[in-house]
Every structure is written in structure tokens, then in C-alpha cells.
Amino acid sequence: MIAKLHNFAEQWRPDFPLERLSYDGANLNKIARIIGDGVVAGLFSADQYRVIQEGVNRITDLMDELDTQPDSFGLIHADLAVSNLIVNGETITPIDFAMSGYGYFMQDLGDLSSSFGPLHIRKAMLDGYDTIRRLSTSDLKYVEAFFVSGILYFMAIHLHSGVHREWFMRRVPVICERYIEPLVRDQRFYDDI
């Protein structure tokens, strides 16, 4: 379903202006600055924020790599999660395109990876995608990078809500250690999500 959506987006040329958010490096750096408020709010440490910034730098470097590859950027859903999928028998339909915009196709795979706990389901998702849009073994680093960027977008959106204070204090150390630090060191972690 995701690969079909990306194939369509790649070929679609609207005959009207379609102004949407751009999920590019500039936007991700803006998100990182918003997340920085969490240090002042006592949600996480300055050292953890430094790790987050290193992660953002690594993700933007990977975005630069993707910019050199054909067919890597286009209109994406940008909020793929189990809650935004309707399953009817064998048919899966994405809903809620409110956050859709221009971004890297791997972002949708990274976002959806965060919704599926068991590894065999995440691997089946990638295998299914690969039957329609080829994935190379090196593409996993991009999926992992956008898995992390999805977490960062979540953090920026919910930083000031107050409702998630306990979540930040509990999860940011784990996110830094298990996902961002390996990403920065170019170590695979997909099997451990």
C-alpha cells in the first residue's frame, strides 16, 4: 500500500498549486530548536539534547545523500501509523492526510516502523514495499533515520502540552541511547526497535 502510494505520488502532477509542508533539513532543524526548550523545562538534560542535535545532523546528512538519488523525494503521507490505517480484509487504506507534505519516501516507512512492535511485522512491511518499489540493503539506514525523525516530530508537537512530561523524562534517555547514538555511529538498530 505504501509503495503504491509512493508510485502514485511520484507520477502525479497536479494542475493546481499544492502548498504543503516540506519535511526537509531546514524543517528538521526548526524542530530541533523547539525540542531544545525541553532542557529549560527540565524534561531532559543538556547532554541528551546534544545527542538529539547530533542525531538531527546525521539525519540531514542522510537527506543530502537521498537528494542525489532519483525517486527519493515527493508527496508523502507523513503521519503513517496504525491509527491512520483502515484494514478491511486484505485491503489497507491510509486516512488522515492532514500532515501530508513533500518529503522523503523513506520517511513514511520510518514512521510506520514505529507503529509495529514485533520485528517480523516490520520486516514483512519492508518486504511488501520491496515487491513494488525496490529497497536496497543500504536503505535501512534511511528507514532508521526517519524512524528517529518521527520521534523528534512527536517530541516537538507534544513538548509544551504538559501531559507528556513523564513520557519525556522516561523515554528521552532510552531514545538517545537505543536509537540516536547508534544512528550517529552508523550502527543498525532496526531489529531492536
Question: If strands are numbered along the chain, what order do they take across the biggest sheet?
Answer: 1-5-2
Reported by name, the CATH topology is Aminoglycoside 3'-phosphotransferase, Chain: A, domain 2
The tally of structural domains comes to 1
Q: Name the CATH homologous superfamily.
A: Aminoglycoside phosphotransferase (APH), C-terminal lobe
Please provide the count of β strands: 5
Outline the low-pLDDT stretches. none
Mean pLDDT: 95
Strand content: 5-15%
Task: Name the helicity range.
Answer: 55-70%
How would you explain this protein's 3D organization?
The structure is a single chain. By secondary structure, the protein is mainly alpha-helical. The chain has a single domain (about 1-10, about 20-190), classed as Aminoglycoside phosphotransferase (APH), C-terminal lobe (Aminoglycoside 3'-phosphotransferase, Chain: A, domain 2, Alpha-Beta Complex), CATH 3.90.1200. The protein is about 55% helix and about 10% strand. The protein has helices at about 1-10, 25-35, 35-40, 45-65, 105-115, 120-130, 140-160, 165-185, and strands spanning about 20, 75, 85-90, 90-95, 100-105. The strands form 2 sheets. It has a 3-stranded mixed β-sheet with strand order 1-5-2. Strands 3-4 form a two-stranded antiparallel sheet. The radius of gyration is 17 Å and the shape is globular. The two termini are about 20 Å apart.
